[in-house]
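step=encode ok
step=design start
structure_in=
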């Protein structure tokens, strides 16, 4: 069976404005959940993504494809989602369907997670290490970050063997590179600058009438 929907969804997510649009819908969902007193607003959203859309790509295709009409999408939501989901989430999907935004669901969920963390006084911190960190190491890193940052850090872990040693820590747009790779690069730059300085000093001495 051909699968035009994933390509269409990828095309939508590649749109530079998609993230900004997704953020607006994410905030609207969280605001609606807060007004209803929903304590864990993203559990149902994440479950729908992980237990419905990902395991059943044909359903995801029908729900997000540009080839499926708006009325057909609303019918799918009524038959498949409504009997199993809350009124809040069902109505939210209907709004997305009417505005042709169901293809943004994965991106909306990502934005909603980050927005919810921000509202709870948290912020994600990307930790990249050359090999997986132990629980003790993670505990030490978390404690140091808590002491240094004005918010609760939410750690997201990655490994990159090219770092050789140390850590790369990203907080928003700021990167703290304490890896051996970064230190070696810094050392090479300092040696190069020193070498160029010595060459220039030699040229200046040779070009001086006194020769010193």
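sequence_out=
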């Amino acid at each position: 069976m051909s699968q035009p929907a994933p390509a269409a969804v990828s095309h939508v997510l590649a749109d530079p404005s998609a993230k900004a649009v997704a953020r607006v819908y994410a905030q609207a969902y969280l605001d609606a959940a807060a007004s209803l007193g929903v304590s864990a607003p993203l559990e149902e959203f994440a479950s729908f993504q992980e237990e419905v859309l990902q395991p059943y790509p044909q359903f995801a295709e029908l729900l997000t494809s540009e080839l499926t009409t708006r009325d057909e999408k609303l019918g799918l939501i009524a038959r498949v989602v409504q009997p199993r989901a809350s009124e809040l989430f069902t109505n939210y999907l209907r709004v997305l369907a009417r505005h042709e935004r169901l293809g943004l669901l994965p991106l909306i969920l990502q934005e909603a997670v980050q927005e919810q963390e921000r509202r709870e006084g948290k912020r994600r911190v990307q930790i990249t290490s050359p090999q997986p960190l132990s629980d003790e190491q993670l505990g030490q890193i978390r404690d140091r970050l808590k002491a240094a940052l004005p918010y609760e850090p939410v750690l997201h872990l990655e490994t990159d063997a090219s770092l050789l040693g140390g850590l790369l820590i990203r907080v928003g747009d700021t990167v703290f590179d304490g890896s051996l790779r970064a230190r070696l690069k810094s050392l090479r730059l300092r040696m190069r600058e020193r070498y160029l300085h010595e060459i220039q000093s030699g040229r200046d001495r040779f070009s001086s009438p006194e020769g010193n």
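step=design ok
step=annotate ok -> The first strand starts at residue 122 and ends at 129.
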